[in-house]
From TrEMBL:
Limits of the Peptidase S8/S53 domain: 141-581
Signal sequence, renumbered to the chain: 1-29
Organism: Ilex paraguariensis
Coiled-coil region: none
Domain Subtilisin-like protease fibronectin type-III: 659-765
Protein name in the entry: Uncharacterized protein
Source taxonomy: Eukaryota, Viridiplantae, Streptophyta, Embryophyta, Tracheophyta
Length: 770
């Protein structure tokens, strides 16, 4: 059983998780029973079985060892009819092998456990206003239903009050399921549905682990993540939201009046069988938008739970917003890369929490902290312990000193406690070179701050240059808005190229995902440490898990503004109007080196809700386009069965994956290919008629490729009129004979510009040796 480690976990959570992992045990006696997902071909069901369930029971009764409590009802724990056909069952490895040979069974896959989970200022930063524009025009998304697949929800949070929200849309088919400390009375006109799917994950977690995690067998959130993401997407207005006074303001979800339906499928970790069940249920219940801040290391789409479930959602025109992952800044780290998913990276907003650190040599460093308890300007000795492993945090090393630690490994939840136990008086947490200058705001329990990599170098060189290094903190206890250059791409935000199909550019765009304030369960400390007795109603968190629900919220507003747009049209509008520049009119930078970010980190750019509601032109696509795309990556007929029931779905010419009518371009040149011609079709959704668009091509460092577009001008005379154009990419790069795999990249954009609209698509050119 492979544990696929993934990534949308904010760092402290990930570390705390690793702390718990040794407790994970297989919850069963000999012989080993595991969870399997059995995919069936519904068209192969023998006629003697009148229902799928009869067929599946027959399989269980026939192909399992009768001596082991073999009642089909206890073996099968989910059946699926929407995300695919099949069921999840507990089987021995031997039984699972037998099942692969049963006629009508497409595949028997081990249920995988994936470590899961990858606002006051952010709506303002996105340019949303209560008095004009998209918010009033859409009545804050009141008629849109956002399904959140996550760790559950804390229903009593003020963010889920339904004051001023109208009756539940009559089309809603969801439910409010009962369980531990949760019943139907916890739902209302804001939280209109809540279900939980834990049968897969519970098989892998001991009761002790579940207890340690404070988990509930109900839709209630024992982790905090789902409460945070749900309130970010669609939380109600809450005045005076803050964490210890920081980030104080009125908190609002992006689609403030949209309805929330929580599908709890994770208890920190999630299993694929639970995710399938959650997504299937959300689709059946009638959600319009799905927000899934989770993922696993990306795999071919036919082996990828998120991609398969999102495909079923796309068939019903549900917009699916997914987190890009937190394993940046490394290339190929992005996940949730299928073109029917909208893949969201994370950037900062223009809000900081500055702390001054004054060194004994009178130099000052600016760090970040949400520590606001006392302002103490005394100087203390500094001690640098590198990675600060627990064994080093002893009084001999730490007593009366400010501890300086490499940050990335430190954020284990118990470290602050250890430092205090050992008599330490403060902590400076240093960013690693790959984290660069992004300062995570942490609600420390002791005087402490995070420092960027440049400050870290300065601090360390000061410490080693003097016998008695000293420092003092000056906590300003304030929140600074509007001064900071923003957005800047977070270093953790996962990067392209797309590891599965490099011809699709991913991530698609970025949204706020750094130091985001949102609702928090009142029984979990803001640091998630059990030693931290403090309780808060709002908390800050960082990750692409935080940016994903921002885009889900914006998509909900677009659904309300344009009810008959396809989900591909919504994604196109989000992408072609996103901004490539920041609040200082410079190209968006990336935190690791403050250099301009490329399309591999920001996709099309930073989401701009107001512009997205009037994009002018859209790149539309429907399910048949996605099927053709899957054919073009040469999936076998059997692999195609995970997506399409029809036999021989790939009969026509499939073309190349880059032919999909996608709002961005990723051109891949391999040896012996020097020209690529791609076609795109634009649909007019503007209201100025006729509207004349001219193309503008911007090259960033594109010396090795020539880009030409034909025609150069497009005239749209009617609403919903379609016009096509061709882009020709010519490579001037000569591959080395040696067969080395050094990759070359080039970037640019193709914009269609009229008097009223700019429809911009980024392109990346990748030369792959193999
Ligand atoms: C639901 O729970 C609340 C509080 O936990 C309780 O007051 C209420 O009676 C319960 N309602 C139902 C229908 O069980
Ligand atoms: C938050 O802001 C409001 C309004 O500006 C103010 O009344 C309140 O005292 C502030 N709360 C904190 C904790 O700073
Ligand atoms: C910091 O600000 C908060 C809210 O404004 C206040 O409650 C707290 O006392 C302040 N702390 C200090 C040390 O001034
Ligand atoms: C730091 O500044 C103080 C006061 O301005 C001064 O007395 C002291 O000599 C300075 N120390 C160093 C190392 O420059
Ligand atoms: C801590 O970080 C520095 C700078 O990134 C690095 O050189 C060092 O190897 C790290 N580890 C330790 C144990 O110091
Ligand atoms: C959307 O609605 C408009 C007018 O109601 C209609 O003309 C158009 O064809 C519709 N578009 C789609 C894609 O259904
Ligand atoms: C798919 O197969 C065709 C024909 O063999 C080949 O030309 C094409 O390059 C393949 N595409 C991919 C993405 O592997
Ligand atoms: C590229 O073309 C050369 C000569 O035409 C041929 O020898 C070589 O095998 C080709 N390489 C690939 C990867 O197709
Ligand atoms: C590509 O563009 C460069 C400069 O714009 C030009 O000199 C060159 O001839 C072009 N190459 C081709 C093959 O069109
Ligand atoms: C749009 O209108 C212009 C002028 O009225 C005309 O020349 C052109 O052919 C029309 N285009 C289409 C696609 O109908
Ligand atoms: C190709 O060869 C040249 C010269 O030997 C070398 O400088 C360059 O780095 C090589 N490029 C690749 C992609 O291997």
């Amino acid at each position: 059983m492979a544990f696929t480690f993934f990534c949308n976990v904010s760092l402290p959570l990930l570390i705390s998780l690793m702390f718990f992992l040794p407790l994970i045990t297989i919850n069963s006696s000999e012989p080993l029973i595991s969870s399997y997902i059995v995919h069936t071909d519904s068209q192969s069901r023998p006629s003697r079985f009148s229902t799928q369930d009869d067929w599946y029971s027959y399989m269980i009764n026939t192909f399992t060892d009768q001596k082991m409590e073999s009642q089909s009802s206890s073996r099968i724990f989910y059946t699926y009819n929407v995300v695919f056909h099949g069921f999840a069952a507990r089987l021995t490895d031997k039984e699972a092998k037998k099942f692969t040979k049963v006629p009508g069974v497409l595949a028997v896959l081990a249920d995988k456990v994936t470590v899961k989970l990858d606002t006051t200022q952010s709506p303002e930063f996105l340019g949303l206003h209560l008095d004009y524009g998209l918010w009033p025009e859409t009545n804050l998304g009141e008629n849109v239903i956002i399904g959140i697949v996550d760790s559950g929800i804390w229903p009593e949070s003020d963010s889920f009050k339904d004051t001023g929200i109208g009756p539940i849309p009559s089309r809603w088919k969801g439910a409010c399921e009962q369980g531990t400390e949760f019943n139907s009375s916890h739902c209302n006109r804001k939280l209109i549905g809540a279900r939980f799917f834990l049968k897969g994950i519970e098989h892998y977690m001991s009761d002790r682990l579940l207890e340690e995690l404070g988990e509930y067998r109900s839709p209630r959130d024992g982790v905090g993540h789902g409460t945070h993401t749900a309130s970010t997407a669609a939380g109600s207005e809450v005045a005076n939201a803050n964490v210890f006074g920081f980030a104080n303001g009125t908190a609002r979800g992006i689609a403030t009046k949209a309805r929330i339906a929580m599908y709890k499928a994770c208890e920190v970790l999630c299993s694929e069988s639970d995710i399938f069940a959650a997504m299937e249920s959300a689709i059946n219940d009638g959600v319009d938008i799905l927000s899934a801040s989770l993922g696993s290391q990306d795999a071919p789409y036919y082996e990828n739970a998120m991609a398969k479930a999102a495909f079923a959602a796309a068939k019903r025109n549900i917009f699916v917003s997914c987190s890009a992952g937190n394993l940046g800044p490394h290339a190929y780290s992005v996940h949730n890369t299928a073109p029917w998913m909208t893949t969201v990276g994370a950037g900062s907003i223009d809000r900081t929490f500055p702390v001054t650190v004054q060194l004994g040599n009178n130099k000052t460093l600016i760090g970040s902290s949400l520590y606001g308890k006392k302002i103490n300007t005394d100087s203390f000795p500094l001690v640098y312990l590198g990675d600060c492993i627990a064994a080093n945090m002893i009084p001999q090393n730490v007593m009366g000193k400010i501890l300086v630690c490499n940050g990335s490994k430190l954020q284990a939840i118990n470290d602050e406690h250890l430092i205090q136990e050992a008599g330490g008086v403060g902590l400076l947490q240093l960013n690693h070179i790959t984290e660069g200058e992004g300062l995570t705001a942490i609600a420390y329990t002791l005087p402490a701050a995070t420092l960027g990599y440049r400050e870290a170098l300065e601090l360390v060189s000061y410490i080693i240059s003097t016998k008695n290094p000293l420092a003092s903190f000056k906590f300003h206890n304030r929140t600074v808005i509007g001064k900071e250059r923003a957005p800047i791409t977070s270093s953790f935000s996962a990067r392209g190229p797309n590891p599965i199909v490099p011809e699709i550019l991913k991530p698609d765009l970025i949204a706020p995902g750094f130091n985001i304030l949102a609702a928090w369960p009142p029984n979990i400390s803001p640091t998630r440490s059990s030693f931290d007795p403090r309780r808060v109603k709002f908390n800050t968190d960082s990750g692409t898990s935080m940016s994903c629900p921002h885009v889900a919220g914006v998509a909900a507003l677009l659904r309300a503004a344009h009810p008959n747009w396809s989900s591909a049209a919504v994604r196109s509008a989000l992408m072609t109007t996103s901004t490539a520049t920041d609040n200082q009119y410079r190209l968006i930078a990336r935190y690791e080196d403050l250099e301009p970010a490329t399309a591999l980190s920001i996709g099309s750019g930073h989401v701009n809700p107001q512009l997205a509601s009037d994009p002018g032109l859209i790149y539309d696509a429907d399910i048949s386009d996605y099927i053709r795309f899957l054919c073009s990556v040469n999936y076998t007929e059997k692999q195609m069965k995970f997506f399409v029931e029809a036999s021989k779905p790939c009969s026509g010419p499939a073309g190349s994956p880059g032919d999909l009518n996608y709002p961005s371009f990723s051109v891949v040149f391999r040896p012996n290919s020097s020209v690529q011609e791609l076609k795109r079709t634009l649909t007019n959704v503007g209201e100025l008629l006729p509207e004349v668009y001219k193309v503008r091509i911007v090259h960033h460092k594109v010396k090795k490729a020539n880009v030409t577009v034909k025609p150069q001008k497009l005239i749209f005379n009617k609403s919903f009129e379609k016009q096509s154009y061709k882009v020709r990419f010519q490579s001037n790069y000569v591959f080395n004979k040696s067969g080395t795999t050094v990759e070359q990249m080039a970037f640019g954009s193709i914009s269609w510009e009229s008097e009223g609209h700019v429809v911009r698509s980024p392109f990346s050119v990748l030369w792959l040796q193999s």
